Amino acid sequence: MTKKSEIKLLGTVASPFVNRVQFVLNLKSIEYEYIEENLAYKSELLLTSNPVHKKVPVLIHANKPPICESLIIIEYLDEIKPDVHRILPSDPLERADNRFWANYIDNKFFPLYEEMRVTPGKEGKDAIKKGIIEGSVLLEEAFIKFSRGKTYFGGDDVGYLDVVLGCFIAWTKFIEKNNEFKVFDEVRTPRLVEWVKRIWSHEAVKDVIPGNEVLVNFYMMLQKYRPPRAV
Amino acid sequence: MAGDKVKLLGFWGSPFALRVEWALRLKGVEYEYVEEDLSNKSPMLLQYNPLYKKVPVLVHNGKPIMESLVIIEYIDETWKNRPLLPIDPFERATSRFWAKFVDDKFVPLIIKMSSSTREQKDKVAEEAREVLKTLESSLNQNKPFYGGKILGFMDIAVAWIGIWAPMLEKIIDIKLLDEEYMPLLNTWFRDVLEVLVIKECIPPLDKLLAHYKDYYDRFMATKSN
């Protein structure tokens, strides 16, 4: 019997943006009801909750209107329960740095994965690989700066950037396998390689990370509804 | 705060630098404005923002902060007088959502408006109007500003459209801010841009028009070659 929760999360298990919200909900011990959406056949609830973007994740808290966009949801959760596992640091400059890098990851780095999928031909894909590798070096430098010698971007424990980047690990492993290259590599990004292992097994997210079969199915759906560009 | 050194690296024609200035002025923060020549970027800009090499950059006591909305939140959190974001977490989430919506949806369309054919331009303008209509739907008829009676985050994040849209309409010969279909939006922008602190740092509109028209003409000329 499931407890009727004050918080509902509309999501899809393959989405890293949904995963990161779940990661934060778990870290903060916030109970929630999870509703799985089939993105090929969006539910009435999703379409009315997010008429602007029609995307997941969508968070519905009690009888308030829905909140959309994963980074905005995360800051909202941090503000309604600030005393349990603070996600963003309290210092304004550190917050600004964290937000800057989250924007880089979401707007510059991760979109390259989708570019890889839709770009035809070896030459095109190689150019994207190069971009992803350059990005990984920037992220390694960012990790060194934020972690200050500790285990996570957030220091001793998981913080904002761990949540933001950490939920892309499953898709990272997927494109590495599909394209025969390494996004994170022991020589180029040694600290991130260690970090990936730690996040992958973190109790607040390990049950939320999708398995390979889920990703394969989602990938097939993307190939069908948003086919790669013609050569 | 005494002893604070605040510098803003900007470009007079940038709406993103402008909205940071609005935030600083509403808070009464003293700052040094440094004009960047974007065709010849200063070593200082390249040092502070090596990743994107873009303005605006806020430098506070030697530490750089980049990305205009990130800067505005930084300003709000550092100088706690006269809050820009609302106090309630849900209202904060809503303000952030609409600001991000405009940046993510409207800005790329402006860039696409330099498309080659008339039909493409009209199509992009139609998409842009849809975005503005969605923004219109978020406005409350009874409140002059988004946050209520005083200017807030959302107003300063978005009001640049009230300047740039009319200008683009003239340059590209399209309709964006349709008074008939977006009455609340038009009234809202007019009210925000009338506030003295906002008005006094808007660049001269004829200079802005000439600058963007020149940029557009040169860009279109390269496309037809």
TrEMBL record, chain A:
Boundaries of each GST C-terminal domain copy? 91-228
> What GO terms fall under cellular component here?
cytosol
Enzyme class, one word?
transferase
Query: What are the alphabetically sorted keywords of the record?
Result: Cytoplasm, Detoxification, Transferase
Task: Kindly list the GO molecular function terms attached to this UniProt entry.
Answer: glutathione transferase activity
What positions does the domain GST N-terminal occupy? 5-85
Q: What is its EC number?
A: 2.5.1.18
What GO terms describe the biological role, i.e. biological process, of this protein?
glutathione metabolic process; toxin catabolic process
Main location group: cytoplasm
Q: Where in the cell is it found?
A: Cytoplasm, Cytosol
Q: Which stretches are annotated as coiled coil?
A: none
Q: Which reaction does it catalyse?
A: RX + glutathione = an S-substituted glutathione + a halide anion + H(+)
Under PANTHER family, the record lists: GLUTATHIONE S-TRANSFERASE (PTHR11260:SF710), GLUTATHIONE S-TRANSFERASE, GST, SUPERFAMILY, GST DOMAIN CONTAINING (PTHR11260)
Q: What does this protein do?
A: Is involved in the conjugation of reduced glutathione to a wide number of exogenous and endogenous hydrophobic electrophiles.
> What family does this belong to?
Belongs to the GST superfamily. Tau family.
What is the protein named? Glutathione S-transferase
To which species is this protein native? Cynara cardunculus var. scolymus (Globe artichoke)
